[in-house]
Structure formats: structure tokens, C-alpha cells
């Protein structure tokens, strides 16, 4: 097999060109995107990145680990489960992902009707996250999302903390105690935080606890 030439081999010393050598191939940034909120197994990535074949995924993960963007490690405990996760340097690609998203959302051909994976939707929320107006102490929301593209898979859990300084959202292994607990499909939650559909028109979204906190999470993260 003939080795793929890099931009550097054409005497192009531009750092942006080198970045494209590292992450510019088809599927690479999509795989990175699915690792931004935490490690995943190979099977998890193949499930979440619809359309990618196992051979391509293997090659992209090999390239990412070879270039120091990601690592493969074995989790402690029984089962010898191996996961892929981004390095500290690789995690800095969230800024690139957010900037690309903010740029592309202005595209006249943006497929707003298409579904998103749970992590992708939460990354969009993080891109647009804003602090709350000055007021009471931190508010917390537990968000559980079911992937509308493949509803037989397990739901994914997140925890949001909202203050007058910042709004943060992280993936967590199980629902966390919070002021408000929200359960939704990715299709309904996307309609709410990206499409602007009011909660009252989305009966599939269930909220327990303080509904006002859920409304504030939407206000703090909506497109």
C-alpha cells in the first residue's frame, strides 16, 4: 500500500494543514466527537457513529492513537474491557468541534431535521451554554436521553450545574440527585433546545422535581 502523503511532504509548514493531516479524514472528527464526554468501547463507538464500518473505525482509532490524540486502555476489574479515550491534548478538540458547529449552523443546507446521538446533542448544549442571571445558589438538573435513532440501546445520563458564573454539563454513569430530573428522547430534546419547541408541546419529555429548573436549563443551553 502506498503511504498517504502529508501536507508537510509537499513542503507546507502551515499548522492548520498539519491539523488536517491529523483529523481531516472522513469520520475522524465524528469519532473524536463521540469521545469528548468520556471513554467508550469499540462497540459503543460503532453503535453511536451510524454508517461507519468496523474496518474504517479501526483505522481511524489507530491513527488517533498513533498521533497521540487518543489512547486505548483496559478498565480495572473483571472482563478486561478495553476503551478508547482522548488524551488531554485530544480533549482540546472540543473547542474546534464547537467552533465548527457554530459556523455550520448558519449553513443554508444544515439538516436540522436529522437526529443526533445523545453525546452530540449534549455537546451542542455545551457549545451554547450560558451562565444564569444572578440569583439563588447553584441549580442542578439530571438529564436522561434515549437515542431516537436506535431506541433499543440503553439511555445515557448527564448532570448539569447552573450558576451565575457558568453552566456545565457532564456525562455520568447513572442519574444524579438534582433539583429537576428530565427524561427525553434525543428527537424531542433536540426539538426543544435547538428547534425552540416549547416543553408544553412535547409530551414525551417527562420532568420530575422543580419544573422551573428544567426550564432554566433550556434557557441556559438552547441554540
UniProtKB/TrEMBL annotation:
Pfam families: HxlR
UniProt cross-references to SUPFAM superfamilies, sorted A to Z: Winged helix' DNA-binding domain (SSF46785)
PROSITE patterns the record matches: HTH_HXLR
Domain named HTH hxlR-type: residues: 14-112
Record keyword Transcription present: yes
UniProt-listed InterPro entries: HTH_HxlR, SCP2_sterol-bd_dom_sf, WH-like_DNA-bd_sf, WH_DNA-bd_sf
Keywords: DNA-binding, Transcription, Transcription regulation
Name used for this protein in its record: Transcriptional regulator
Native species: Actinoplanes couchii
